[in-house]
Fold:
Amino acid sequence: MYAEIFKNYVESTGFLSETGLIDFVLRCYEHEQRPLRGCEPRDLVQRCIDMCDYESRQRVVTRELIQLAWKNYFGTVPAVD
Structure:
């Protein structure tokens, strides 16, 4: 369900996402043993959008952006490769 919410929100924004991104995000949750919450895909992706807009980046949600958004949102750095 989380993966579907994530995918749908990325698509609704008109952004693209890096291949394998959802698997990467789910591994971050697993590594930190965080529960999956339905609002967090939107929150994480929105932070990526904000960074892209602010820095005039290409509108693609990448692992790098997710890591920055994760750090900003949760206050931790996901130790997943």
About this structure: The first strand starts at residue 16 and ends at 17. Helices lie at 2-13, 21-32, 40-55, 63-74. The mean pLDDT is 93.
